[in-house]
Fold this sequence. Notes:
By secondary structure, chain A is mostly helical. Chain A contains nine helices and no strands.
Amino acid sequence: MIDAMDKAAGLSPDDGLFTSRRFRPEFVQGAEECRLSVLQPTNDQGLVPDLRAALARRMAGLNADQVLMAEYDTQMVGLGSTEQLRALAHGATELDEPLATIARHVDLITLTPSRAEAKHITLLADAGLNNPQIVALSELIAFVNFQTRVAAGLRLLRSA
Amino acid sequence: MMSSVRLKPLNWHPYIAPVELSEATPEQLDAMKVTPSAKKVSDYVRTLAHDPESYLARTILFNAIMYVEGGLARPDRELGALGASMVNGCKFCAVVHARRHAELTKSDDVVTALYFDRPETLGSRDAAIYSFARRLSVTPPEATADDIAALRSVGMDDIEIIDLIHAISIFGWANRLMHVLGHAESGKEAACRSRAHTGCLQ
């Protein structure tokens, strides 16, 4: 069965790499469980799935990942996203709070994680995020940056 | 001949209050694998336990990527983790995985070359792995078919390269937790801080 990572990497069951990837069933299943835990969690901590999909789309854009950008755009259509979330997803900076603060944080941590400081967590708290939301947001940011790298690496390996 | 770098473990301090075990939900306790006999759960684990679902899923995947049997040799996974951690600026992760690489290879040579920014002194296999780790870790990723060709030229097969891609990528994840949700300091810095009023030379 084709999963989200196969789709992102452009793998079909005919590819040798599709089979090679299954040498590590722990990675295949583990990555899918992680994806669900940050994009469609049972307890979303008040960060709803359409916000999560919009942020994922924004980060796919920062990673210049055309396949994942299209995938998250499709997911957003399915979730019936608002105009604000569509703007957020496509990189806008003029947003209502707390979306503007969240967007700045997502951009910083995706592009230049080395620049993260204590004040950036304070900004999230000042925008109204509680501790579970700060952690859940951090995990979502971290996951999409994982996903884009695995997908990029597999694409290179497939075509090399 | 370079002298060896000396890396001491760092301490990690969260920017937000971790979950207190006495106030944790059953789901949080389960995610943290807290047993009645457990006395101490790290600040890092208790911080991530604010969102137990993602913590549990990531821990299972992380352990598989770094410790699963066969495939890519353990030191090579540690080198991928180290390269990613250096790009992402996670000092804590970098020190942990540099030390682990040195333990596994019984040599400080690779770690010393990287901490003194002398990657040109690496052997061809380490150089190919480190370069790929750096180029896959930046945003957006800059790795190309040349990186894959370099890995193949030192004898790596697809299974090993898939393992390496995951080792690098999972640190694109871990670094964005550890370096974002808290900061690292050495035991010496902590001691200086506690003696701040008596003065302490760096």
